[in-house]
Amino acid sequence: MPSPAEPAASPAREAFSAxxxxxxxxxxxxGPLERDVAARLWEEAHRARGATTAVTIDAGEVTALDSGGAxxxxxxxxxxxxxxxxxxxxxxxxLERFRNGLGMVKAREAPPRKFRPISALGAYTLGxxxxxxxxxAFMGETVLTALSLLPRPWRLRWSEVxxxxxxxxxxxxxxxxxxxxxxxxxxxxxxxxxxxxxGAEIFIPQLVGISLTRELxxxxxxxxxxxxxxxxxxxxxxTMRVNEEVDALKTMGLDPTAWLVVPRILASTLVMPALSMxxxxxxxxxMGIVMATLGYPPVxxxxxxxxxxxxxxxxGGLGKGAFFGLAIGYVGCRAGLSAxxxxxxxxxxxxxxxxxxxxxxxxxxxxxxxxxxxLGW
Length: 377
Hints:
Helices cover 70% and strands 8% of the residues. The protein folds into 2 domains: 15-103, STAS domain (Transcription Regulator spoIIAA, 2-Layer Sandwich); 156-375, no CATH class. The chain is α/β, with parallel strands linked by helices. The chain has a 4-stranded mixed beta sheet. The N and C termini lie far apart (122 Å). Residues 1-11 have low confidence and may be disordered.
């Protein structure tokens, strides 16, 4: 035993050396090789190793080793280095566990991308076919539910119908009045430019009146309904789906189509003729203001409208409007109930409702144009 006069043995200090012997690089470590020591020696050790392939890692004098030191030794060793294992049992066990862990972790190779146009086309076709089946199923379910409510109308939630009539119709009147007046003014001014060249400004009321009642009135009212009400339907039903309220209705034995879909579609169908009528009246008023600025009295404008406009023109436009409202309500409800579960589900549903509603609006308008032409109406 050391005498009290002898100084105590100093703790082992870390050391690193790099020597080349017989064409082989020896990297020697001694003392404790833990995280802080490995951090200090990392750049120096890698600089000494360089690109040499014949390397011997001498860790025989390492007295303490943790994951940081084992990571330094493993990064220096590569796949072909020779090892001199630590003589310390705990350090040797730490190094062995670290190397075994590295062997268990394998990089996942990305599968090779293959150009398969036929497979891609088939997948796209099948996806479109599944979407078509979903839409057909929703349409069939909606029609059957509506037919089942006809002999029992008391089962329909009339309070919901009135609420949606107010939201989709009454609250949309100011926007329809503004837009209708502006459209009438714009059409009258734009048509007056070519009409003036032929001295036919008196026929502006006929042009604007027929355009509004047969085409522009229902079409613009449908755009307003798709932007306001269709998106609102999709957002409301999409939120209920995300919050699992639709699933709760099914759990309670209630039909979501009868409770949520039919009242909204009925309200949008009933409100569209009223919106179209508001667009027509305000558009004609805006046209009358322009005609007054051109020097034509209201009596002359009314005479021209009475001479050329007929009840058939007005009825055709209002009938188209009812079908437009039916399509917009259906598209909005379908987009809401088919929404996903993610954070963007409600926004995507509202966007799909607006886009789908406008596309359906234009398609139906084209079909009615062909039908009216064939009927000579």
